[in-house]
Specification:
Elements: H1 10-13, H2 25-52
Length: about 55
């Protein structure tokens, strides 16, 4: 007697889903607002360096 092996893909038979952590959008927005001025400052500084190197 010959046994036929069907699809033994474990993913089909076992739920391996892991729930992702919830993201608190309001906390992320507050942090973004906090670091935004530093980002603007660094972008201006970078633009100055690029200008010195004649790179637009």
């Amino acid at each position: 007697m010959i046994l036929e092996i069907q699809d033994l893909n474990i993913i089909r038979y076992v739920d391996t889903f892991e729930e992702e952590k919830e993201i608190d959008i309001s906390v992320n927005l507050k942090e973004l607002k906090k670091i935004e001025p530093e980002l603007v400052k660094l972008e201006k500084e970078m633009a100055g360096y690029l200008k010195k190197l004649n790179i637009k």
